[in-house]
Specification:
716 residues, alpha+beta, single chain, 48% helix
């Protein structure tokens, strides 16, 4: 382990080797490990048998649900048509240049690296092949083959139905797919043929955008004393069940015809349904297939790929229930018509949440879907965010804190083997994302938390503190500092901003995107207007009126106020990158360097820097019971401060001679002046940015060796 840690600290270790070693530490293996599979009450352990069973299972799923539905009469959604397009050499070359060499190749064994090495020499022959495919409508049989990898979804890993197939397709086929995708997607979006309610696989859209919109609708309903009834549906094996005849029909409906459609209709072989997961074009074809699902829906509907949700803002419980039931019936009929299925398992019926803050309970008629009553639940995980009936987010935050604490335990366990840089990366890449996900949605501003009288849930404020405490625990694990160390000091040393500042930063960044048209249209709510004053309109936005503190804390009311506080220069940044860079300067201090030193003794440097270590003055200042006095036991009878320990204490004369035998020659290279004690202490702990990297490394290493030889920090 120590040897692997040394390799991580070695600046000559290549990037690929670095991440390979780090994944070993974290036990993250890219190759999925398939345990014995339970099939017909027998355990299958042979790898070849497993592969055969997976192949048979995945193939059997690629059939449409059987019923008597037939294609309806065609009704075009647009007068526009697309039948062909031009393919340029520059376009092919740009796609080849952008290929990710780390991506796996298909069964033809032609890797992305090989394609990139050939570069421009491949463009002309590929152009001829691509144009020939469009002209003849014949897609090469070799490019239809794929290596299929089973990827575990959820629940028991020994049950085959808990896996989904990911297709590793030929690289050259994916180059062609990218060209088709670009032209087809541009055509569909320019003609508004993909619903705005679909957020999945849409450039510029995300889970967070859709969740932010939904939560705002609920908060606004609470503001007006209303309830919201929301239903969540599960489309069964959606990608595998796309009916090919129905897909061709819907492509025609959207004006796709001629040579382009011929290419889509190329012989499907024995596979009668499904679009490959892992392809470039598959997700777009799926969006086209389910795009008309929203037709006739009376309530609000949102899609994220195959995740479907309905919600109704309740003014009259009977009217809302009637509309939702109509919508569920419409969805059920759509599924029958297009040979798809929602919630086919009776044990996994559709779920609903009634979002409400009403004290007096209101009766809401039950709803039914597929002849089964929709299950009323108090919380539901939607797009990774656990929503509960009062929007307290307690369950979501508690779960994320639990996940983060497991990761912090790993850092503590590995801290003796990993350099600081790696510990820091583990936190930022594998732990902090748990604390960050959707944080702009549930954020409670500090100014609110400091107030004494308000109507927000105190539980949520407590959880904000618990989140910060979790990051603080991570900071201790990463740095090796002691519990009780000032949070501000340790964040300053690590170059971390508080989670409160991160949430504020993300709210403002999202708002910049909304104000500059960088988010989907459905997020342009509520209607924002400029403030007026005696001399006309100002550049500030009108604050959103809020009856309750809960609504005032929510995204739009809070962020409008934050936005106005920024000032016109920052708000008017020329690009998102410039805005984020300048905004981050307000929240994140530069990291204090350890100059890439790999030594377990770096924790001692941290302890001295932040002022909490085994030294008596530090312990006394923090009221340690075993330290009644800050006075050192040496003959000088003075406080055992950092300066006393490093420079003056007579107990450590010999280690100090070794220390200054290293330090003095370095100092003479840069100055001939006497260095007073406090400046010398700062140099021993921080180095000097004007010095060369090697000299700073030698200074800190010498300081660590002094501490180690003194044995003062091992007396605890």
């Amino acid at each position: 382990m120590k040897n692997l840690g040394s390799k991580l600290a070695d600046p000559t270790t290549g990037q690929k080797s670095y991440w390979k070693i780090l994944n070993k530490f974290l036990n993250k293996c890219k190759i999925p490990k398939i345990p014995p599979l339970l099939v017909d009450d027998k355990y299958i352990t042979n790898c070849k048998e497993k592969a055969s069973i997976f192949n048979d299972f995945f193939s059997s799923q690629c059939t449409p649900f059987a019923n008597d539905s037939v294609l309806p009469d065609i009704c075009f959604h647009t007068d526009r048509r697309i039948s062909n397009f031009q393919i340029s050499l520059a376009e092919i070359n740009a796609i080849i240049t952008g290929l990710n060499v780390k991506k796996a190749h298909g069964p033809d064994l032609i890797s992305a690296n090989m394609v990139k090495l050939c570069g421009q020499h491949l463009c002309v022959p590929l152009k001829i092949i691509f144009e020939n495919i469009l002209e003849t409508g014949i897609f090469p049989d070799q490019w239809k083959e794929a290596n299929v990898t089973p990827v575990h979804k959820k629940n028991d890993k020994q049950i085959i139905s808990n896996y989904r197939p990911i297709s590793l397709l030929p690289i050259l086929a994916k180059v062609f797919e990218r060209i088709i995708f670009k032209n087809l997607y541009n055509y569909l979006t320019q003609n508004n043929l993909i619903t705005e309610n679909q957020s999945g696989f849409r450039p510029g859209d995300s889970c967070t955008n859709q969740l932010l919109s939904l939560v705002h609708e609920i908060h606004e309903s609470f503001h007006y004393g209303l309830e919201v009834r929301s239903i969540y549906l599960d489309m069964s094996k959606a990608f595998d069940k796309v009916w090919h005849e129905g897909l061709i029909f819907k492509l025609k409906q959207n004006g796709i015809e001629g040579k382009l459609l011929n290419g889509m209709e190329s012989n499907w072989g024995d596979i009668r349904a499904g679009v490959p997961q892992g392809s470039v074009l598959g997700p777009l074809l799926f969006l086209i297939y389910i795009n008309d699902l929203e037709e006739g829906i009376l309530s609000h509907v949102k899609f994220f790929a195959d995740d479907t949700s309905l919600f109704s803002i309740i003014k009259d419980p009977m009217v809302s229930a009637h509309e939702l039931q109509q919508d569920l019936n419409s969805i059920s009929e759509w599924a029958r018509q297009w040979k798809m299925s929602f919630n086919p398992d009776p044990t996994k019926q559709a779920e609903e949440i009634l979002f409400s803050h009403k004290i007096i309970r209101v009766d809401h008629p039950p709803l039914h879907f597929n002849n089964i009553e929709v299950k009323r639940v108090t919380d539901h995980k939607h797009l990774g965010l656990t929503l509960d009936s009062k929007l307290s987010f307690v369950k979501h935050i508690t779960e994320k804190i639990g996940n983060a604490r497991k990761g912090i335990g790993i850092i503590k366990h590995l801290s003796n083997y990993l350099p600081l840089k790696t510990r820091d990366q583990i936190f930022k890449m594998h732990i902090r994302p748990h604390l960050d996900y959707c944080d702009m949605i549930y954020h409670v501003p500090v100014k609110t938390r400091e107030m004494s009288n308000f109507d927000c849930s105190r539980t949520l404020q407590y959880l904000m503190k618990l989140l910060e405490s979790t990051q603080y625990q991570a900071a201790l694990a990463v740095s090796g500092a002691w519990k009780g160390t000032s949070r501000e000091k340790i964040y300053e040393e690590l170059g971390w901003e508080s989670l409160d500042h991160r949430r504020t930063f993300r709210r403002l960044t999202q708002f910049y995107k909304i104000m500059n048209g960088l988010t989907p249209g459905y997020l342009k709510i509520p209607a924002l207007s400029l403030r007026s004053h005696l001399f006309g309109l100002s550049n500030d936005l009108k604050n959103i009126p809020s009856k309750t503190q809960r609504y005032k804390n929510s995204f739009f009311p809070d962020t409008v106020s934050l936005w106005n506080d920024l000032g016109p220069e920052l708000r008017g940044s020329e690009s998102l990158a410039v805005f984020k860079r300048n905004l981050l300067k307000l929240y994140r201090l530069p990291k204090k360097s350890l100059f890439n030193i790999y030594d377990d003794g770096t924790k001692w440097i941290f302890q001295l820097r932040v002022g909490l270590s085994p030294l008596r003055s530090h312990k006394r200042a923090h009221k340690f019971e075993d330290t009644p006095s800050a006075i050192c036991n040496c003959r000088l009878q003075t406080a055992e401060t950092t300066c006393h320990f490093l420079i003056n204490c007579p107990f450590f004369v010999n280690p100090r001679k070794v220390l200054f035998a290293t330090i003095n020659p370095i100092l003479l290279k840069y100055t001939t002046r006497f260095v007073e004690d406090n400046s010398l202490v700062k140099l021993l702990l921080y180095g000097d940015e004007k010095f060369k990297l090697e000299d700073n490394q030698n200074i800190l290493k010498a300081t660590i060796e002094f501490i180690r030889d003194s044995a003062r920090f091992s007396q605890m």
